[in-house]
Model the fold of this input.
Amino acid sequence: MIANIVLEFFLRGGPVMWPILICALVAVAVVGERAFWWTRESSRRDPRKLEQILAALENHDIAAAQTAAAGSEDPIIRVIHHGLEHVGHAHGSLLGALQLAAGVELKRAGRFLTVMDTLVTLAPLLGLLGTVTGLMTAFLHIGSEELSVKGVTGGIGQALIATACGLGIAIFSLIPFNYFSAKVAQLQFDLETAATNVEVMVGGGKAGDTVHLRKPETPGQATSH
Done:
């Protein structure tokens, strides 16, 4: 019975409800995938082993640090391990290896953020389109010779349903989008801090130097949110 009510509600929203439905399915899939991914990544963090690696580097024991970092699933430790594998190679290879590995981790962390940002913008626009088409339907019935109350109310109902669904999808996507963006920013900070520590301890950098990493770009994020 509930399914029939939902189906009737959906059909009353008009043709624009089909692209809105696609947006809803994509939003649920992306939010679910990102929530699972970040939960798994959080469980893989190993601050105790990270301290052990940094302590070994502070004592100039690169071999011990490489051994401790090997096989870890912590993204920060993976970056450090990748950088330590290039110690002793050509000048600048350590910093380059750290930046490359960190860039890969940030790309994985920022996956689907562009999709979520698009949904936040697109869903209300589709709802607005449904509003316009619904009101057009209502006004067409008002202007006809035989005024149809059912047609007028149906058009208004179509407009309200489409608007509500579009806004609902945008709200559902916006909160996780901002949360996941904050998680990516935090990961970027942690990676920069770890890379700077490794560069100072191994590469002989200055204490004030900082390794800067590029965060995956999200179109419209700076202006919209």
Observations:
- DSSP finds nine helices and no strands in the chain.
- The longest helix spans residues 149-203.
